[in-house]
């Protein structure tokens, strides 16, 4: 099978690039003396996680309990669920912890340790609980100077059925860095905030098992990771147009594209319409600060070469592409096929049920995506 005879729209995963990305990041993090705990929310796929494990990753990070369930059922039993836990998920999390060698949760709220402790006692399990730290993203987490930053670890330590796993942060603001220098500064800041905070906690007598950091832009820019135990990048396994524009990778490293067919051509308006719309690509705008014309994805030919075209507008099942070049407009007749390099691979992947796995020009396999919550 090849890209001419699979259904569109569908995901196409370049297996060679996945292996290369897995090996490079594992070697990079290992070189810094830390452990790689990849965030599998990017791919939600057991086969991809196996490639990461073979390359040297230790344990995984998940963003849904559905991912935790699916990966635990396939032998991944060292899992961190890296979205703050809330009481409505306690029961399922406790059940999952029984299937795992280690199942860690995170919190940034002082009300959670005593409640979770009580639930864990009731279930007869002991859970690892991290303090989520805000290192500048301001999405979730406690800023290290706040009183809760000491209060929460103490409450965890006081709990009979919880272990204080350590401190964990995600520098999501790295996606808004405008220059490489700014990105490097955010990467250093993410690390330094965490190592300084760990030192303060230790000086207060709190035992900090693990200092955990990670996003793809920072993981590709750290200059060292002294004092850090693990890094949790996720997107690096596929990369995407956003990361390549930001400078986290080269365009040739991007492993995921959406195969699409032309369903309409309008020579007068100089445009074609693809059968890949917002549901197939995601509506993530991408790095419009760096590349105002980025649109919703780059249009590549079937071999993966740039055409220079962008998906400029999206509705649910339609993707519009403006085509000024006559030769391209001739070539893009109804039924012609292209590959779209989406802005944000994690969001594109999560829309689909499986990947078509590409080795060279051949589609050799189909790997399932573990969706839902
Ligand atoms: C808590 C947490 N850790 C790690 C990551 C991985 O970051 P990235 O997607 O930049 O690789 C994310 C991504 O959102 C996250 O939320």
Q: What does the model show?
A:
This protein has 373 residues and is α/β, with parallel strands linked by helices. It folds into 2 domains: 16-237, TIM Barrel (Alpha-Beta Barrel); 251-368, D-serine dehydratase-like domain (Lyase, Ornithine Decarboxylase, Chain A, domain 1), CATH 2.40.37. The chain is built from 12 helices and 17 strands. The protein has helices at 15-31, 46-55, 65-73, 90-99, 112-123, 148-158, 180-203, 216-219, 241-246, 278-281, 326-331, 345-349, and strands spanning 10-14, 35-36, 60-62, 78-81, 102-107, 127-133, 162-169, 210-213, 230-231, 256-266, 271-274, 297-300, 306-315, 318-322, 337-342, 354-359, 362-368. The strands form 2 sheets. The chain has an 8-stranded parallel beta sheet. The radius of gyration is 22 Å and the shape is elongated. The protein starts with 9 loop residues before the first strand and ends in a 5-residue tail after the last strand. 49% of the residues are buried. Pyridoxal-5'-phosphate is lined by residues 39, 61, 82, 170, 172, 214-216, 232-236.
> Any idea of the CATH class of the largest domain?
Alpha Beta
Q: In one word, what is the shape? A: elongated
Structural class: alpha/beta
* Terminal CA distance: 32 Å
Named CATH architecture of the largest domain: Alpha-Beta Barrel
C-alpha-based Rg, rounded: 22 Å
Number of E strands: 17
Quote the average pLDDT.
97
Order of helices and strands: EHEHEHEHEHEHEHEHEHEEHEEEHEHEE
Low-confidence stretches: none
Heterogens: pyridoxal-5'-phosphate
CATH superfamily of the largest domain: Alanine racemase
Specify the helix fraction band. 25-40%
Predict the CATH topology of the largest domain.
TIM Barrel
Q: What's the structural domain tally?
A: 2
Number of helices: 12
